[in-house]
Backbone:
């Protein structure tokens, strides 16, 4: 017998079977793609919301930390005269008026507020004489936002006690020991205090002549190096007033002026005057911040009545009476998500300003 040479049945799929198989594959593929797309959308949304939550947490942490330290080293001080132009240019559009102050001078508080900043408000850079300036504007879209300024002593700087004859009668030149000379750099902002109060000044130059002593100069005018307009020399000048024309023992130290604002790109900025090696330094604390709002709870007035919280400190009594600050921050996701919208997250924290309680108890009856 010979094996059969007839080929086996080679019949394939019919067209209908192929169409059905292809359709099934397409349905399965579409389901997989849809599932993957949905998973990617969920993953993207999770990442974006996590980023927003991290910005929210960081912003609250920094602001709360500074509020808790507000007033360090200033428990009994009420008189801090500062040029009003500096305050308006860098801290608030609404400095608190004090009838006891000369014209053009304001009394800077531990907390200085600015509520609902108008659109396009500029934030000046380190040197107003340089163009272009201002370098940035404050965010005000889609809602207005607040600013906050906080004072606290720089505990890392060892104060220098200046005998009565160490400040000249013009309130401009200060004599220090040669051993302290290297601690200072022109352009830095310093704080001077005496029994009459405290004030700020910009170091414009320093000199180390022959002998055991050196000098620091706080001259007036941008051309002299006073970029922020803090210095006024002669009778009526801030250092002259605090030192009583050089006749009082005065302390030279660093005081941090910490200023929070949101720039037009949505970054929460922390600018600090009173730092080493510069007039100020600033850094972005959080991104994609829509607004920050402050609400101030006050202690009882002279009659024991507790008023409702206020959104701006508008007089000296309120500045001293602050007990608690409520901070509400709103952030958004870095990129649009569903329906091309950027979801927003809002949270509120409350911080006790502990130094304010001691400060009010130690208030003198009158200012100089």
Residues:
């Amino acid at each position: 017998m010979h094996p059969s040479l007839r080929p086996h049945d080679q019949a394939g799929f019919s067209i209908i079977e192929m169409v059905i198989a292809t359709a099934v594959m397409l349905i399965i593929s579409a389901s997989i793609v849809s599932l993957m797309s949905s998973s990617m959308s969920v993953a993207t949304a999770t990442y974006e919301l996590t980023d927003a939550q991290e910005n929210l947490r960081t912003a609250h942490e920094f602001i709360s930390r500074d509020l808790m330290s507000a007033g360090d080293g200033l428990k009994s001080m009420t008189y801090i005269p500062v040029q009003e132009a500096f305050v308006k240019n860098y801290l608030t559009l609404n400095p608190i008026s004090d009838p006891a102050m000369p014209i053009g001078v304001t009394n800077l508080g531990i907390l200085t507020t600015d509520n609902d900043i108008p659109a396009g408000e500029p934030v000046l850079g380190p040197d107003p004489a340089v163009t272009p300036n201002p370098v940035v504007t404050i965010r005000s879209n889609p809602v207005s936002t607040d600013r906050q300024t906080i004072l606290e002593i720089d505990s890392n700087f060892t104060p220098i006690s200046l005998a009565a004859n160490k400040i000249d009668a013009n309130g401009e030149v200060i004599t220090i020991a040669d051993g302290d000379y290297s601690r200072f750099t022109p352009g830095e902002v310093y704080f001077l205090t005496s029994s009459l109060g405290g004030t700020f000044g910009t170091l414009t130059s320093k000199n180390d002549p022959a002998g055991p002593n050196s000098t620091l100069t706080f001259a007036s005018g941008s051309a002299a190096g006073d970029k922020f307009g803090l210095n006024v020399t002669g009778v009526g000048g801030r250092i002259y007033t605090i030192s009583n024309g050089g006749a009082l023992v005065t302390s030279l130290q660093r005081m941090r002026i910490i200023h929070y604002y949101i720039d037009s790109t949505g970054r929460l900025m922390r600018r600090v005057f009173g730092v080493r090696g510069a007039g100020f330094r600033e850094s972005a604390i959080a991104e994609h911040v829509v607004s920050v709002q402050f609400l101030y709870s006050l202690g009882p007035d002279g009659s024991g009545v507790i008023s409702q919280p206020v959104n701006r400190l508008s007089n000296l009594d309120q500045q001293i009476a602050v007990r608690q600050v409520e901070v509400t921050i709103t952030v958004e996701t870095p990129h649009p998500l569903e329906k091309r919208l950027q979801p927003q997250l809002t949270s509120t924290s409350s911080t006790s300003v502990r130094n304010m309680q001691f400060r009010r108890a130690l208030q003198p009856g009158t200012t100089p």
The first strand starts at residue 81 and ends at 83. The first helix runs from residue 15 to 69.
